[in-house]
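Quiz preparation item.
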C-alpha cells in the first residue's frame, strides 16, 4: 500500500476509548450535510437489514446513537454499546432529549466481546464507521455471530479499503484524518473471509457513497465526489469511498 494514512497514534484499546471520550461532547458530522448523510445511511441499513416490526436491534460502536434512535420505535427495541463511556453518556442524553420512540438502553462494552449481550438474543446487529476501529475484527464478528438469533443479520458500513482515497490520495498528500493508527480498512474480499471464519452465510457486499470531506481540502472532496459518481456508473470499486457487507447467521 505504500505510505499510510496520517492518523492519531494509539497503542492499546484504552487509547481508543480516550480518543472517542475527547470527541464525545462536541462530536458532529464533518463529512457533509448531517441530516442528508444520516438519511443515506439509514436507507441503506433498512434495505439490507429486512427488519421485523418487533426486532431487538444492537448497534456496535454506537457513538451518539443517531442511527439506532432512528431505527427503534413501535415494538422495536434497541441496545447501543460503545467502548467510550463519554459517548454512552452523550447517547443517553440524546435519547432523553429526543423522546426516543422505543425502548433503548446503552452500555459501555467492547465490540470485540459484547460481554453485556446475551447469546442468541439479537435480531439485527449493525455498525456504521466503527468496524475499522476494532483492534480484533475477527473477534468482533465472532461475537456478533454469538449474540444473533438464527437467520438474523449483521450489517456493516465502513470505509472501503480498496478505495483510491485510502490507498493513494490521502497517504500521498499526508492529509490528517480522524482515524487511528490501528485502524484497518477492509476490502470486500477481506470482509468475506472474516464473515466466513465467523460462520456467517448469505453474504452480500456492495459500495456506498462515503466521501470523508472533513479530512481533506474542498477541492479534493469535489474530485472524489465526481469519482464516486463515475464509480457507481461503471461499477469501479476503487472510486467508491464506502463498503458495506452483510452476513446471516444460519
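Solution:
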Amino acid at each position: 500500500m505504500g505510505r499510510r494514512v496520517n492518523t492519531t497514534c494509539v497503542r492499546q484499546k484504552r487509547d481508543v476509548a480516550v480518543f472517542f471520550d475527547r470527541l464525545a461532547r462536541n462530536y458532529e458530522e464533518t463529512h457533509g450535510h448531517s441530516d442528508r448523510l444520516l438519511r443515506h445511511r439509514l436507507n441503506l441499513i433498512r434495505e439490507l437489514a429486512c427488519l421485523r416490526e418487533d426486532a431487538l436491534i444492537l448497534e456496535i460502536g454506537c457513538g451518539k446513537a443517531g442511527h439506532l434512535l432512528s431505527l427503534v420505535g413501535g415494538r422495536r427495541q434497541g441496545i447501543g454499546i460503545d467502548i467510550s463511556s463519554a459517548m454512552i453518556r452523550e447517547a443517553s442524553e440524546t435519547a432523553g432529549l429526543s423522546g426516543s420512540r422505543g425502548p433503548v438502553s446503552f452500555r459501555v462494552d467492547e465490540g470485540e466481546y459484547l460481554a453485556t449481550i446475551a447469546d442468541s438474543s439479537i435480531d439485527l446487529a449493525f455498525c456504521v464507521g466503527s468496524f475499522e476501529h476494532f483492534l480484533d475484527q475477527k473477534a468482533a464478528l465472532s461475537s456478533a455471530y454469538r449474540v444473533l438469533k438464527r437467520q438474523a443479520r449483521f450489517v456493516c458500513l465502513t470505509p472501503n479499503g480498496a478505495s483510491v482515497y485510502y490507498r493513494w490520495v490521502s497517504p500521498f498528500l499526508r492529509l490528517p484524518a480522524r482515524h487511528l493508527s490501528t485502524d484497518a480498512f477492509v476490502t470486500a474480499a477481506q470482509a468475506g473471509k472474516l464473515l466466513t471464519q465467523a460462520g456467517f452465510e448469505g453474504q452480500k457486499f456492495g459500495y456506498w457513497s462515503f466521501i470523508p470531506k472533513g479530512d481533506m481540502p474542498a477541492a479534493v472532496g469535489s474530485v472524489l465526489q465526481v469519482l464516486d459518481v463515475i464509480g457507481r456508473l461503471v461499477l469501479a470499486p476503487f472510486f467508491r469511498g464506502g463498503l458495506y457487507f452483510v452476513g446471516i447467521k444460519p
